[in-house]
Amino acid sequence: PDPQTIYRISPRLPADEQRIVVEAQPGAQLTKVTLLADGLSLATLTRPPYRALWTLTPGEHSFRAVGRDASGEISESEIVVITVLK
After folding, report:
1. What's the start-to-end Cα distance of the chain, in Å?
2. Which residues in the chain show pLDDT less than 70?
3. Contact at 8 Å (CB) between 4 and 84?
4. Is the peptide bond before 49 cis (omega within 30 degrees of 0)?
5. What pLDDT does residue 60 have?
6. Is the CATH code 2.60.40.10 the one for domain 6-85?
7. pTM of this prediction?
8. Which of 8, 11, 75, 80 gives a 20 to 30 Å CA spacing to 29?
9. Which sign, positive or negative, has the C-alpha torsion 5, 11, 13, 14?
10. What pLDDT shows up at residue 5?
11. Where are the domains of the chain?
12. Are 37 and 44 in contact (CB under 8 A)?
């Protein structure tokens, strides 16, 4: 998601249909990318596209990606914070 985005949960839609795409677009060739939501692993992916769906829940949430390349070097994205309103 884009930083500081505000999402609103709709009472008219089922909760499991109210999701956003969490995606990493690394500049380097990576062998593994872990997407984290609120510090917890959302998905670990070994090839592009590095994306997963996250179900909206009320509150402020943070997202980041941690990647590993073939030599074992680890890189981390900036933290992206969003807000979900009920």
Report:
1. 18
2. none
3. no
4. yes
5. 98
6. yes
7. 0.91
8. 80
9. positive
10. 96
11. 6-85
12. no
The partner residues of 32 in beta bridges, in order of sequence, read 68
Relative to beta strand 19-24, strand 50-55 is antiparallel
Burial 31-50 (b: 16+ CB within 10 A, else e): eebbbbbeeeebbebeeeeb
Is it true that the peptide bond before 14 is cis, omega within 30 degrees of 0?
no
Residue 15 confidence (pLDDT): 87
**Is 76 in contact with 66 (CB distance < 8 Å)?**
yes
- State the Cα–Cα distance between residues 77 and 86, nearest whole angstrom: 28
Sorted by sequence, the CB contacts under 8 Å of residue 17 that are 6+ apart come out as none
